[in-house]
Amino acid sequence: PSTISRVMNDSPLISEKRKEEIRRLAKEYGFMLNSQAQSLKTKKTGTIAILMPRYFTDLCTNIFFTHLYDVISTELAQYEYDIMVIYSSQHATSHLSPLERMVRIRKADGFLILRPHLSEDEIAILDNGKIPYTAIFMQNILQPLKSMFYINTEHGGYLAGRHFGSNPFDRILFLGLEGESVDNGPRLRGFLRGLKEGGYEGEVETLSGEMSMNGGYEAIMGNRGTIVSNSAIYVYNDMMAFGAINALTRLGYSVPMDVELLGTDDIPLASSFRPQLSTVHAPVKELAHHACKTLIASIQEEGENSIIQEYKPHLILRETTK
Question: Mean pLDDT over residues 218-246, rounded?
Answer without folding.
Answer: 97
